């Protein structure tokens, strides 16, 4: 059985609560990523996605100098490194999310994306099912 620790990205780039939305957006551009976890003292505080920036900042006419904590998602679904890939895929499908922070003892230790699951040979097609269910959603829900 494959566990999240076997497929997660371990060296996750993060930002802090004191960063501005502009700084986070520039970091996303530099790294060519669409999500950045927000961490303080190694503790996961939230996540901000490129979609959060568009909907909660630009569309709401928030200035780019606003603090990231003003628009980040705080009520997150997370998994531990010993979570199975099947359990993670089921959670992603149920909650309509594409990325899961991996937390151990309250600290961010990695992140797993739906794509990470999709490249694995999951015998029960959990990644395929998760992607199918998430894609059916209209995309209104951000990372939790």
TrEMBL record:
Residues 8-65, 72-128 form the CBS domain. Pfam families: CBS. CDD domains: CBS_pair_HRP1_like (cd04622). SMART domains: CBS. It comes from the Bacteria. Keywords: CBS domain. This is CBS domain-containing protein. It comes from Siminovitchia fordii.
């Amino acid at each position: 059985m494959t566990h999240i620790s076997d497929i997660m990205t371990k060296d996750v780039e993060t930002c802090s609560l004191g960063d501005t939305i502009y700084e986070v957006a520039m970091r996303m551009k530099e790294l060519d990523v669409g999500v950045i976890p927000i961490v303080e003292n190694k503790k996961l505080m939230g996540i901000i996605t490129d979609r959060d920036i568009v909907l909660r900042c630009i569309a709401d006419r928030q200035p780019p100098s606003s603090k990231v904590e003003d628009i980040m998602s705080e009520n997150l679904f997370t998994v531990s490194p010993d979570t199975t890939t099947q359990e993670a895929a089921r959670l992603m499908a149920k909650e309509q999310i594409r990325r899961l922070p991996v937390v151990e003892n309250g600290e961010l230790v990695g992140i797993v994306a739906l794509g990470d699951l999709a490249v694995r040979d999951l015998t029960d097609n959990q990644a395929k099912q998760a992607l199918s269910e998430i894609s059916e959603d209209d995309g209104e829900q951000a990372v939790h």
